[in-house]
Known about the structure:
The protein is 0% helix and 48% strand. By secondary structure, it is mostly beta strands. The strands form 2 sheets. Strands 2, 4, 5, 6, 9, 10 and 11 form a 7-stranded mixed sheet that branches. A 4-stranded antiparallel sheet has the order 1-3-8-7, with no helix packed on it.
Amino acid sequence: xxxxxxxxxxxxxxxxxxxxxxxxxxxxxxxxxxxxxxxxxxxxxxxxxxxxxxxxxxxxxxxxxxxxxxxxxxxxxxxxxxxxxxxxxxxxxxxxxxxxxxxxxxxxxxxxxxxxxxxxxxxxxx
Length: 126
């Protein structure tokens, strides 16, 4: 089993930045792609981006390209989501997810991930 814990969410003004962290514990050697998703009430969980288990490749949904960056620290078993130039429309609960597959890197559907964190709220005020 792998446990994921997100942190770093909060309230920020439009144009500001936040860095979310996702700390993994447990059988972390078995994890592959790590992904970030977000969800607002009444809507489905939406893919934000993902990073390969080696950290060498990242992939983002079009709406966040150039503003969001995913990075990883294997020594700390932690993945980060740096969010810049924040807009009110990105307000959501942000979730970290992990998959056990190390072959396929790009995974954009929630069902492709095996482990999930509890989520952290990000609120961007106008």
